[in-house]
Amino acid sequence: MTIATLRCAVLDDFQGVATSFADWSPVTDRVAVTAFKMHFGTEKELADALADFDIVVTLRERVAFPASLFARLPKLRLLVASGMRNSVIDLAAAEAHGVTVCGTASSGTPPVELTWALLLGLARGIVAENTALRACGPWQSTVGADLHGRVLGVLGLGRIGSAVARVGLAFGMDVVAWSRNLTDERAAEAGVRRAATKEELLSGSDFVSVHLASNEGTRGLVGAAELALMKPGAYLVNTSRAAVVDQDALLDALAGGTIAGAAVDVFDTEPLPADHPMRSAPRLLATPHLGYVSQDNYRRYYGEAVEDIAAFLAGEPIRRLG
Questions:
Q1: What is the full DSSP assignment across 111-148?
Q2: CA dist list (Å): 110 to 21, 90, 127, 240, 265
Q3: Could you give all domains of the chain from N- to C-terminal order, each with its CATH number?
Q4: Which of 105, 157, 158, 273 would disulfide-bridge 177, Cβ 3.0–4.6 Å?
């Protein structure tokens, strides 16, 4: 039996399932795998924990790998990220430090499904009614918002946004979409209307769902001025990227009741600190970044992470990023 000579760290394995959702046996004769359930909150904590690891597997874009971190990890040779796009890994710095960065496939279906779980939860007061029922509280305390015939505004009509729009159409909603590069032809292909401006979409929608990547053009795209355009009875759902919606502005809108409510699955800081105001904000339905967390996606992430490691060990890296 060959003794494992390399060490692999799996980050943010909160549920403790990284080694059970994939068969790691193709690499365990050469690689010793350690999964971390806790999140390392600072770069120093992360660098100290990973100092002796040759390989790191990281989930989505929660953990940043800037040049300064690569400089503190001289043993690191392979970084595997779930998905084929990652905005928080400095790929140039990785190359400069001799670190190969690889990705995996990622399904857009789980975030679409969670988007609708959150939207329906908001519309029908599911959490409040369930809580009251279990506590023997009032029998019916909310009046649900209808979907049929209402306007669903989709910010970003890419792979996930288009799928969200199709569900809205199935509910009988009037679906309108906007992004900077969206054309009438592309909107028509998805069966929806194109809003001429972001402002038109926000002011005319009963529900707004965000599906934009985080970049220089989208950070803070929905701020205080944009939230003020929304109807008092409108709802906002963000399962995309936290940076697209100004978090402080959203908290103010919820506290002031200028919108009916919001559902959020992504946050500026993850995991949220215990005293973070998003934990206690009124009119907010929040989940701990569950959009990508599903059985099929985890099988895909960890299974392909094993493939990436095996290919790297064979000297033929696959699914390279950058």
A1: HHHHHHHHHHHHHTTHHHHHHHHHTT--S----PPP-T
A2: 16, 27, 20, 12, 12
A3: 6-106+294-313 (3.40.50.720), 109-286 (3.40.50.720)
A4: 157
Name residues whose C-beta falls within 8 Å of residue 59's C-beta, 6 or more positions apart in sequence: 11, 12, 81, 82, 292, 301
Cα radius of gyration rounded to whole Å, the chain: 22
DSSP string, 44-81: HHHHHHHTT-SEEEE-TTSS-B-HHHHHT-TT--EEEE
* Res 32 pLDDT > 70: yes
Q: Is 219 an active-site residue?
A: no
User: What's the CA gap between 219 and 232, in Å, rounded?
Assistant: 24
| DSSP structure class, residue 245 | B
**Cβ contacts of 259 within 8 Å, gap of 6 or more:** 227, 230, 231, 232, 234, 235, 236, 253, 283
Question: Within 13 Å, how many C-alpha atoms sit on residue 201's CB side?
Answer: 28
Look up residue 8 and give its two tokens. 């692999």
Report the percentage of the chain scoring pLDDT > 90: 95
From 124, 200, 270, 320, the catalytic residue: 270
270 tagged catalytic: yes
- Per-residue tokens: 117: 């779980």
* pLDDT tens digits for range 94-131: 999 999 999 999 999 999 999 999 999 999 999 999 99
Q: Is 276 a catalytic residue?
A: no
Looking up tokens 């928080």 gives 88
Confidence band (pLDDT; 50, 70, 90) for 215? confident
Instruction: Return the structure tokens found at 109.
Output: 């279906």
Active-site residue, from 60, 150, 211, 289: 289
**Amino acid 4: pLDDT:** 67
The catalytically annotated residue of 226, 241, 304, 307 is 241
